Amino acid sequence: MGHRATRVCLCREQDLLGMKTRVEGENVAPLPDFSPELRFVFAAARLAVGGDAVMAQLHCAEAEVGDWEAVARGIVHHGLVGLAAPALLRAKAAPAATLAALDAERSPHVVGVMSRLFELVRIARALKAARIRHLFIKGIALSIQLYGDPVMRAGRDIDVLVERSRIRDAEAILLDLGYELPTHCTAAAEPTEGEPPKESGWVHGESRILVELHDRLCDNHALLPWDFEMLWTERETVTIGGMTVPTMARRRLPVYLAVHGIRHGWQRLLWLIDLAALLDRDAAWDDALDDAAALGLEGMMLHVGWALHHWLARPVPSDVLARGRRRLEVRLLNRLVARFHNGPRWYEMAPRGSVRRFIDGSVWSRSITYTMKPTRAFWSSQLAFDLSSPQDRAAFALPARLGWMYPLIRPFGWAIRRLR
User: What are the helix (H) ranges across 201-268?
Assistant: First the structure.
């Protein structure tokens, strides 16, 4: 016990002093100053992308852990069953009971991926037969695109982006395939309306698999104004279940995945690992920063560099890190995303209707969104969007002349959705 306590103190002292652990000739950034259990999860994520260079840190973090059940739940919560769990099993870097629990999680993970793969192929065939242009985004398509294996990423649903003019036809296809819109959800508004919800969620009646049908990438198109025509023209394809399906071009993925991950405070480290796989060369960084700067999102992309370096210990060009240190919005984003990883129940999503869920979604996520794109044009657009929920527009179809009433009915719409 005395030996373990001494090891814990030495490891913690090293990180608190901001020292670098030199392993195999590389400088490894100290682990973030979170709870011991979460620090171990971060070390496991580093192991998944960095190999043996972080092994010393992993064992150092292991010595500090007091609640291994929280660690196992955290590995699952952060989507690391397919990527980090196998590495931990090989390294035997946890108690036998924890390793057995992680190993047991792999079977349902693989079964879930195979079930979603089967459904994705069914949907792709139906959309193709109806001549509906579509792109599968994230999930299995991204797992194959980045890692060459559908089971590496722990996805939860199937996301498909459809050309907006055919959204009703796509909904009809999902109905024919056995999917239904839950009673507490609303379908996207008519394509002629202003800003309906960007997606609708459809659940299969038997398998309970969720399909999210998107007509754009973000609720507020001003945040990421890429239109479907551009994405379709640049599309790439992956082979899933023997079928070729379209997906987003690799060149566009860094900015899109950064927007998605940062807005959610990196609540799944998997999203950051995806960016580590994409931004593995200086040329990839140049392209991503050029694309982000053209959209007013350069600070957001520089924050990705900070997160990859400080959280995953990935090599990031020195000029990217230096530019990030000079930007106020990067420092703000660094602080805001950390709020999603504090607290005693960091390893699970806050329950719906809880105060924590409200604060995370309505305070911190919104603060992140405004910080990501600090331009007057976007802020005015986002403020108008926040005062007029797309869910309210879908649920309460007011005539155009009464559109000014949506901010007034928003509290009632919010209350109705929470009660449902």
Answer: 228-233, 253-263
Q: How many CA atoms lie within 13 A of 359 on its CB side?
A: 7
Burial class (CB in 10 A: 0-12, 13-18, 19+), 119: buried
343: pLDDT confidence band, cut at 50, 70 and 90?
Answer: confident
What is the dihedral sign for C-alpha 172, 157, 279, 297? Answer: positive
Q: Which two tokens stand for residue 331?
A: 């420092």
Helices (H), strands (E): how many in the chain?
20, 9
Could you report the per-residue pLDDT of 315-339, keeping only the tens digit for each?
Answer: 999 999 999 999 999 999 999 999 9
17 has pLDDT over 70: no
Instruction: Provide the 8-state DSSP code for 161.
Output: E
Return d(Cα 201, Cα 210) in angstroms, integer. Answer: 7
Q: Are 296 and 375 in contact (CB under 8 A)?
A: yes
Q: Residue 251 is which amino acid? A: R
Q: Which two tokens stand for residue 131?
A: 């001549």
HSE, side-chain direction, 13 A CA sphere, residue 241: 16
CA distance 365 to 369: 6
Tracing tokens 């240190």 back to the chain, one arrives at: 325
268 phi, psi to nearest 5 deg: -130, 115
Give me the phi and psi of 242, to 5 degrees please: 80, 5
Asked if 79 and 157 touch (Cβ cutoff 8 Å), the reply is: no
- Tokens, residue 265: 């405070």
Cβ–Cβ under 8 Å, residues 270 and 257? no
Q: Average model confidence (pLDDT) for the chain?
A: 87
Name the token pair of 420: 């449902």
H or E element in which residue 27 lies: strand 26-28
Pairing of strands 199-204, 210-214: antiparallel
